[in-house]
Amino acid sequence: MIVGERIILRCIDKGDIYKIMHWRNDPEIKKNVFSHTFINSLQQERWFENYCQNNTEERFMIVLKDQDEAIGVNGLSDIDYKNQSAILNTMIGERKYWNQGYAKEATVLIINYAFSELNLNRIVSYSYESNKAIQKKNSNLGFQVEGLLRQMVFSEGEFQNVVIMSLLRGDWNKQKGYNQG
Ligand SMILES: CC(C)(COP(=O)(O)OP(=O)(O)OC[C@H]1O[C@@H](n2cnc3c(N)ncnc32)[C@H](O)[C@@H]1OP(=O)(O)O)[C@@H](O)C(=O)NCCC(=O)NCCS
Question: Which domains does the chain have, with CATH numbers?
């Protein structure tokens, strides 16, 4: 368990997976994530079984400390220990909690975990160009835009450009005043 100021990150358990399915099937969320199908319970159970056997992903439930309420999921996928990189994934599934800094707080915890525990060096975020909230949250944390993948994904009836942003460990440490050089 990773403890923050207002939230904790804890492991995803079997009892969480239908809640995650519900969030992923919410049209307002689905239109922003790179999943092109709605998911049923059997697919969700298979996803969880695969996830449990996969050592290149670490995902956590985001839980409000005070209410003990799960509000989203975040974590790392495509963890590459040789090149010390991973892809960041963030979802606040309970929409009433959007724009209150929860994704930012959860991402800070994941970044510290990635750099200090997993010894990663680079965290990457992919998002549709239209997803300004995730890009704002990332840039608030020091992520830099690396580029634009033009018309990379067909979604919602049109091709979507995908923004790539990244954060390096050196940049993060510098921001936090750790880097004396
Ligand atoms: C994207 C998402 C994770 C953001 O979560 P959140 O908890 O609302 O994010 P935060 O409050 O930490 O930060 C959002 C920032 O974006 C800003 N923002 C929100 N909507 C915006 C918009 N349309 N244009 C510009 N900035 C916007 C907020 O003001 C905030 O910035 P600030 O802290 O400087 O004021 C959440 O909306 C979500 O789960 N969406 C669906 C799934 C998704 O898109 N996941 C990412 C897939 S790549």
Answer: 2-175 (3.40.630.30)
